[in-house]
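Cross-posted from the bioinformatics board.
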Amino acid sequence: MTIPADIENTPPRRQAWWRALMRDPSAAVSMIVLALFVLGAVLAPLIAPHDPFEGTRSVMQPPVWAERGDWTYILGTDGQGRDILSRLLYGTRLTLLIGLLSVGIGGFIGSFLGLLSAFYPRLSPFVMRFADVMLSFPAILLGLALVAIFGPGALPVIIALSIATVPDSARIARSIALSVMQQEYIEAGRAIGLSDTAVFTRYLVRNSISAIMIFMSLRFGQIILIGAALSFLGLGARPPAAELGMMASQGRDFILFAPHIAFIPSLTIFIIVLAANITGDALRDVLDPRMRS
Amino acid sequence: MIDTAVRRLLQSIPVLIGVLILGFLLIQLSPGDPARVFAGAMAPPEVVEQIREQMGLDRPMLVQFWAYLERVLQGDLGRSFISNKTVASELGAAIVPTLELMFACLVWSIPLGIAMGTLGAVWRGSFLDRAIMAFSVAGVSLPIFFICLLLIQLLGVKWQLFPFIGRGGPLWTLEGLRHIALPALSLGLIFIGPVARMTRSSVLEVLKLDHVRTARSKGLKERRVIIKHALRNALLPVITLVGLQAGYLLGGAVVTETIFSYPGIGRLSVGAILSADYPLAQGCILVLALAFIIINMIVDMLYALLDPRVQGK
Amino acid sequence: MKHPSKSPGRLLLAGLVATLPLGGMAAAQEITIVREVDSNNYDPQKSVARAAAEGLFMMGDTLVSLEPDMQTVSDGLAHKWDVSEDGRTYTFHLKDGVTFCDGKEMTAEDVVYSIKRWVDPETKSPVAWRAGDVKDVVALDDKTVEYQLEEPFSELLYQLTQSFGTIVDKDNVEALGEDFGISGFNGTGPYCWESWTPRDKLVMTRHEGYDWGPSFYDNDGAPHMAKITWQVVPEENTRTVALLTGQSQVTQYIPAIAIDQMNQAPSVEVQRSDEAFWTYFMGFKINKESVSDPVARAAMNLAVNQEALAEDLMFGKVEPAYSYVSQGALDWNEDLDDDLLRYDPERAKKMLDEAGWKVGEDGVREKDGIKLQPTAYVFAGSTWQKVSEFVQAELLKVGIDLEIQAFDATVAWGKLATQEFDVFGMSFPYVSSGDALNLYFRSENMPTPNRMNWDDEETDMLLDKGKTALDDETRADAYGEVLKKVHEAAVWLPLYHEPMFITHTAEMEPVVPHNNYGAGLYKGLDLKFKE
């Protein structure tokens, strides 16, 4: 019987993805940009030119390309004389971390629930109702409420964003799982006597996971934006930590005199999210047309 | 259609109760002391204890929740700790500005988004199409506060076209319109993107479908074909989108209202939660959940209205 | 002094210079005043918020008023007053023709009611002590009030100029009950309550027929403005551009960073008053472990560079503070001038080393198992954020790790009444040293406003001596002693003294800044558009 062999092989489509992706210039550029940011964030302690938390007396220095700027502070300094480039690197780190953890945790829990509810249809209405309840809470209010309990910080934000990711992931995972389950090899697996758990883990999960992750990547950008918005409102990381949304918020007071303090971190968020969205879109297009629902 | 509405309503009841429980719990778990907040900074401990008893905060949580439920069902949402005005009156005053903001934002971004998406689909692959798509992705990637700040700097400060503080009055007054312009513009810019993309892909798909071909064979002019059939069916996902995006829209409204000092529910909620004003915070969460349920209901009904196949279910 | 970036800021403002302001409000005599925070209510005897005082000075009147020099007491609702020899009885003679906004005449009975309400334990007023040790208040006739004290109170007249002494309407209080100061307020002031949306705006209209304002105002009749809107704008940058674009006509809440540019912009004018005392400081709870060592506290004082704070973070617009009250304040003890703790981080490190505070592996000092890691509670908002971050950074350089927790204004007051923190950030207005010392250093004022838990019998005794003093010298001596004690114990870390800046559009006549409780516009009788 060739079925086990078919089951063991990864679908040939997967190898074609990379090639298709690389052919799309904007996707390729986006992935490179993302990789650069991640690299910068990871290597922050090594490559940051200054201490991101140390204030100096050279406040509000403009970036190097403006008049009065110089190479000591390439992107200028903020209202307390701290080097913006260094804070940017550390800030990206924290922002990305928050985003990844939130999408990771929320996505994992949500996908698990979604896959379960597809596998055991009787669970379905309960899971979906539960998801509905959670959907009624916009992420930002959830964040606010959690901050009210735990005080501001990265942790409540991560918890809130994870919770906010669960319902969407559950739905997506469920619909992906449903279509995967229509594949014959699920029935085949059952036919050869594999236990439910085995079918679940080896076939359902394995075949759904890439599609799920692609949809997660689309969520990633939005989660980062919500996290930044919470930080902007003062509910995220506490000083003296550097976080992109918080930096933008601190820069508001100087907009008339040193707009770069607010604009540089905001632009950074924009670029990261843009790159994430373009990459996510391209990945999903490659899966197209079937997964586009 | 009534069927759908009733069914949705019944399905919403557990959701609503869930939200009530969640809202109550969240605030109960908060480390702040409502009795202390209510009594004021200078009150001696005995006064604080008295107030705690008065407020029933020393009773077990289930008892408190039941009491809360009773009060809510009678329409008594309590008084704000901070302003001492009734929660109902504060909410009432704040709902209208937010509704106006939502309306002002959707009224221009949905039609424009649909138009853009349709154009993109019709002239697929052209420079226009790619520009529209680029604009859409960009719109979704911009942090909302960035857009707000940019608009304030350009349109508010530099060219002084619009004010950017507070609400000028009801939507139908000139001052009201002038004050809502920038917030509505900021919020709408984020919304156009998804609408355009969704419209574009829906129109593209529908253009391929059989019944459009059938219409073509009847000899109608191509433009009418597109507008009549494709759009109508493309509208459905867009409407669902509005429902789904309502959450993000509200999140954006929170930031927008804060930056523009616009006295809506978003700003009220943030203030209430930040200042541990429990009655007001609970009231806000309740109202918002209700809003979502209503929005979803409306979306469902519109869906049923526009898609004859659904009605038949 | 560092100048902020030249090109973008100045170009932008140059562009603004040529443009016309938005909102054609000059035609109607209406103005919008922007401010950062709102009050929680407008009940004069219950709210200590400056925002309440701002509103109440305009909507109500007090028996006496304070002139802009912050020293001279002037007329208010009383045109004349006598003080008995023993300092225990004050007799106030009220002006004629004073009415409330609803038309009712104000009499001595209303004064009696208001003062009694102020000190009545039922009212639970947090500022009852400011009325003095009241024995009784009696209406001798319709226009004469006798104010009797158990003991002389050298500052009574100053305290009566505060908004807490606003004369209220008994019928109004009884009618509104819980909603007094929330849904309405019937006062005798130059403006009348129209509406209040909490955290958004307070609207008031002209009190027609008003002509009993303090005599130091040029305007002795009804106010020029027909309507005033106090708009809450939490963003300092937005307040700045509100004035530049004419969306607001006058405010004192322009951030230090913008003052220079405002001075240069032709569409706005800036008025400055140095008689305004508003001091920013951080206080230590001296019985908490991490800050109980006076050497550590003194070291913290030495570690912070107040001058850099004033120059860099506040753009040179404030005065660095080394004393707990301004050295220009009434009854300041000049003998202390040379001993004040100024910036000397090396000395700080030395002191800490000698006292046994060793630097640990993580850079934080510890001694006997106690780490120098105090927790500070401050108000949320851009000012305290940058100030506390600055202090944190300075203290870290000498091995002290300050943890900062910021709270929104409305919840902060409650948090600051607890014993949870070690350090707190605060700012406050005062008319004299005595005013400040009585507020913060009386043992009976623990846990708040005496958050330092300063419990010293001798201090209490000296404060009483100053309070009941019948001549200036006795009073100054007593307060001088207290100042010496608290400065030597380093119970505070003074940061800066903030002068009052009032910024207004060029279409308005120059405004004279006041500083009673920090309310720069005081009664608003001089707010006027240029003809």
